[in-house]
Amino acid sequence: MLDVIDRNILRVLQRNGRITNQELAAQAGISPSACFDRLRKLREQGYVSDIVALLDPQKLDRALLVFIEVMLDRTTSNVLGDFAAAVQDMPEILECHMVAGGFDYLLKARVEDMAAYRAFLGNSLFHMTGIRETRTFAVLEEVKYTTALPI
């Protein structure tokens, strides 16, 4: 069970993963040694799975963000497994979610531009077996983007 101090540590880490233990302890209102121990426990318990750098997609030629609805021919365990395994090898796909509703998967992908997306569709996605239909939604403007969870 998380207490107020643990939640505060997690809030601060979400804003700045590069913060020093000294600074984190000061913001959490505890000693550096207590902060170090608490953070170690939070990692061991799986509350903190990783600390990463967030990169600017525009500077890395990945300006176009698209969401893709995927409908499969069948939803048998082998078709689902094959699809899940195949998307792991596609670096353009940032996220893949199996969903309930009118389609089977929702993909989030980043590519350079619409021509690159068309090439991705033709060279990768459309070659996968088991796909019946896709629908693409190109993002015109990112209104909100965050990786921070409400704690």
TrEMBL record:
Keywords: Activator, DNA-binding, Transcription, Transcription regulation. It holds the Pfam family HTH_24. PROSITE patterns: HTH_ASNC_2 (PS50956). Transmembrane segments: none annotated. Residues 2-63 form the HTH asnC-type domain. Gene3D superfamilies: 3.30.70.920, Winged helix-like DNA-binding domain superfamily/Winged helix DNA-binding domain. InterPro entries: ArsR-like_HTH, AsnC-type_HTH_dom, Dimeric_a/b-barrel, Tscrpt_reg_AsnC-like, Tscrpt_reg_AsnC/Lrp_C, WH-like_DNA-bd_sf, WH_DNA-bd_sf. This is Winged helix-turn-helix transcriptional regulator. It comes from Sphingomonas olei.
